[in-house]
Amino acid sequence: IDNIPIKLNAAAILREGALYQRKMEQELKRIENLLRGAGDPSEFLEWQKQMRGKDLEEQLAEIECRRLQGKLSHEEAVLAHQNVTQENKKKADLMREEKAELMHQYAQKRLQEQQEMRELVQQVVEGHKNAKQAKIKLQKYKQQIVQEVSEENRELLRQALEEEEEKLRKRYELIQQIRAIESLPSVRHKFVDLTETGGHGLICEMSIVELRERLALLREAQKAAEEEKRDQIIHEKQAKEQLLLDTLDQISLFRAELGRAAALKQEEKKRKSQFGERPVKDERILNLQKKIVEKTMERKKQAELL
Q1: Angle between helix 10-35 and 208-275 (nearest 10)
Q2: Which of the given ranges, 35-49, 115-129, 148-162, 219-233, has the highest pLDDT on average?
């Protein structure tokens, strides 16, 4: 187990330090109980872990069987769908051929009817040709009259707009002149005595000079308070940094010990696995996998035929 250094923030360092502290307290309590004569529950815990492992393997085998059964059902459904698609395709091809034949017959009949209608229309057009030309001339004459009236109306509208714009321009110039006269500043001179009070008859009245002195004193007091607060924050920050450094040292020690313990546990597990029996795969899973392979090959062949 490699102890890879990871950059942690303050909350993570304190959280991990508290976790290792609780683990150390639990280990000390366990050792104290052993010294008092209490039994070590590690054997019972190991047996309980083995039983849970067996139960977990059985549950995983059952889940794998269900998954493979679902996959097999899917392959069978896809194969059935392909068979139905092939049947529908045959029916569609037959119906397409019949429809093409009917459309060909219908097209021949429509061509014959159109030829007859074209001859009748030609006869009617020749009879109404003169009346149509007279109607076109009358329409052109009406359009010319409408165009002349529109031009005359546009000229009158343009003249009215120009007169209205001239009135608005003169009114705007007059308003600008009035605003310029009103905006001229008025010159006022007044002497201000900074040492004189307002004369309102109040006990707490102060002059501008006294107010400035009072403000300067308040600013100095505020500055001193800020300096004191800044020093306090710096001391707290240094104490917190020292706490984090101490916690990091403890975390490094705990990680090193946990790494060595994990390495020993891994070696023990590997040594046991070398002498232990390999688990045999469930026969139900093997049968389901074989059926799935057969259905998949059959589906691929059917898909190539389609």
Answers
A1: 50
A2: 219-233
Cβ atoms of 81 and 303 closer than 8 Å: no
pLDDT greater than 70 at residue 192: no
Residue pair 255/3 in contact by the 8 Å Cβ criterion: yes
pLDDT band of residue 21 (cuts 50, 70, 90) is confident
Q: What b/e sequence results for 235-251 when a residue is b if at least 16 CB atoms lie within 10 Å of its CB, and e otherwise?
A: eeeeeeeeebeebeeeb
Report the C-alpha gap between 257 and 263 in whole angstroms.
Answer: 10
- Whole-Å CA distances, 128 to 115, 117, 123, 239: 21, 17, 9, 111
The tokens describing 121, both together, are 């229309």
Residue 178 three-state SS: helix
Q: What is the pLDDT of residue 219?
A: 93
Q: Span 272-293, mean pLDDT?
A: 70
Stronger pLDDT, 232 or 49, i.e. the higher one: 232
46 sits in which H/E element:
helix 42-182
The Cα–Cα gap between 70 and 203 comes to 95
State the Cα–Cα distance between residues 289 and 301, nearest whole angstrom.
19
User: If you search the block for the tokens 């008092």, which residue do you land on?
Assistant: 36
Residues 75 and 72: their CA atoms lie apart, in Å, by: 5
| C-alpha–C-alpha distance, residues 282 and 290, integer Å | 13
Rounded to whole angstroms, the Cα distance separating 209 from 216 reads 11
Three-state SS for 215? helix
